[in-house]
């Protein structure tokens, strides 16, 4: 391994960590401002009705979800829609961390199933737009990834 490869990999890891933190901040801030749509079906409905308000689509899976063909088909359709409508997309692993961030319990005391965290949309309504540096940071990361022909960048959220 050359020195450039070592330095490059360290800066890439730091960049990914920074973007992961920005994504976490963005999701928490968007949830507080009621700018999150959670769930594959709920997200598809919103994008059909108001795609202009969507600024980020987070597609989340863990290793056990990789074999879920139906979920992968939904992801493919959502990604195509996002590409057609210039919506930033991120693939994220770390469902447990997402549940922690969004304070979504795995078990519900009422016997209800937990929310489907596989697809999360961040909206930015024109009336009260999100004023969040994290949104700009994540958007810049997505744009840089597209410039490198990585249309759907991936991040890993680690449980804390």
From TrEMBL:
Alphabetized InterPro entries for the sequence: GADD45, Ribosomal_eL30-like_sf, Ribosomal_eL8/eL30/eS12/Gad45
One biological process term in Gene Ontology: regulation of cell cycle
Cellular component aspect of the GO annotation: cytoplasm; nucleus
Pfam families: Ribosomal_L7Ae (PF01248)
Domain (Ribosomal protein eL8/eL30/eS12/Gadd45): residue spans on this chain: 22-104
UniProt-listed SUPFAM superfamilies: L30e-like
Family per similarity comment: Belongs to the GADD45 family.
Protein name per the record: Growth arrest and DNA damage-inducible protein GADD45 beta-like
Organism this protein belongs to: Scomber scombrus (Atlantic mackerel)
Taxon lineage: Eukaryota, Metazoa, Chordata, Craniata, Vertebrata
């Amino acid at each position: 391994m050359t020195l450039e490869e070592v330095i490059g990999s360290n800066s890439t890891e730091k960049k990914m960590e920074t973007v992961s933190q920005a994504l976490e901040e963005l999701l928490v801030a968007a949830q507080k401002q009621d700018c999150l749509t959670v769930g594959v079906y709920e997200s598809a409905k919103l994008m059909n009705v108001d795609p202009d308000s969507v600024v980020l689509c987070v597609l989340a899976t863990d290793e056990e979800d990789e074999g879920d063909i139906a979920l992968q088909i939904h992801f493919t359709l959502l990604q195509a829609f996002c590409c057609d409508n210039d919506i930033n997309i991120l693939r994220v692993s770390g469902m447990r961390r997402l549940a922690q961030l969004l304070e979504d319990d795995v078990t519900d005391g009422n016997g209800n199933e937990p929310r489907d965290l596989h697809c999360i949309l961040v909206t930015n309504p024109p009336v009260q737009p999100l004023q969040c540096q994290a949104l700009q940071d994540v958007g810049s990361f997505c744009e840089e990834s597209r410039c490198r022909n990585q249309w759907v960048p991936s991040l890993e959220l680690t449980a804390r």
